[in-house]
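U., I forgot to send this yesterday:
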Amino acid sequence: MTLRFLPVGPRALLVELPDLAATLALFDALVADPVPGVAEVIPAARTLLVRAAPGAAADGRLAAAITARASLATARREDTAKAIEIPMVYDGEDLAEVAAHLDLTVAEVIAAHQAATWQVAFCGFAPGFAYMTCEDPRFDLPRRASPRARIPAGAVGLAGRFCGVYPKASPGGWQLIGTTPTPMWDLARNPPALLRPGGRVRFVERRSAVHATPAAPAERPASVVGLRVVATAFPVLVQDAGRSGQAAHGISGSGAMDLPSLRRANRRAGNPPDAAALEITLGPTRLSVDAPATLVLDGAADRAEIEAGPARIPVDVTRPFALDPGEVLVIPPPARGMRSYLARRGGFDAPRLLGSAATDTLAGIGPDPLGAGAAIGFADNPALAVDGEPAAHTWLPAAGETVLLPVTLGPRADWFPDAAVALLLAQDWEVTAQSSRVGVRLAGDPLVRDDARELPSEGTEHGAIQVPHSGQPVLFLADHPLTGGYPVIATVLPDALPLAGQIPPGARIRFTADHPFSPIEATP
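Result:
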């Protein structure tokens, strides 16, 4: 068995193996005998994404240690526990097309899908999304040529050799064959994910759709004492350093897009650097408080003022400032960058889920986004003295300007002709308005591949530059999916990610690479 190590960056690498069985065997070996310096391993169809721990490097020594574990890997034992039965209605939009592709009738597709025992190979894409395989070789289907912008929660789909159930409404390119009312992800359940790697599933047909009643969102009591959003152009989000180490649940790290700015705001407010603060996108945003508060602004915010009755009091955003009840803090759109961070001395009352208070907009976990009329309570956390020294802000880009972002070519640069790789680096890519915390959609001369091969789903990193069939890249940001099915031509270096999170629509990106694409092959 030959292992192929593909570069992702200084802190991660992708291990490519011959097939799913070899991939899961090596994953189990790495779990049973962890390699020092490895923080997390994300299994997929034919690859393992290996993330190095802080202070460790994803280099040849790490690859050698993984190769040594591969020599001891054995096939995964089948879970002997009773299979979980999932009721479903075969009402999918692509059911007839799937039947035609398999040269079966619709009834035969349904019968085959029910007859199979599906085993959970790995999890990813979204919390609770399980990639399930079976022994029926007929279930090998391509993704849709054009992904849907929205697939409803509970949709059952097929792609490649996998079957999956969408835990929440999200974009997707799988072939839809039906729906189920059974929730795949429920925070009231322990663990929240219904399906876990190694488990088995049987699908049982229902004759009519049964819709689960969604739980009513928790409401803050009206008596909450805290900060209130009077008005905002975009929802205000609670963010901290993110929730690392949750790949087994299909959850990416999330957290502040510009982590250094969040940490700087907290330190200036006397808080621990990774405490929860508010991430404000562009503006204008108007905020008020129910009790006196000491606040700090950092990130893109370059000016603000306090409305105190008829008075307009300018705020020195380089220093901590006070806001009293009856006053309104006005934060206009910044001239440069696009995300500002507001910290309060003593912190905010933000519940932690899976180790973090961050709002993951793709996964739908964490505190609810704060729109006009929403409030977040004040916490009474221990705090040190505020730092009154003027803050030194780093350079941030404005619309129309070009930002240089260094990348590592790979892990799938070899899926593209040399001309496409050269084109990635030779042009300025426009940041479009169709961008979010999930990813930045770029526009430019398309990156065309020589073929239309399907890439089995594999782990993706924060900073991955994924290229869909359109040839227009997407730069993954903090709330990106844990796995993806389009090739990643390059990955932005970790130190440049805070800057990437501040690039506004209308700016341009020029990618730079210091080293050629260089995979390594090794045999245990």
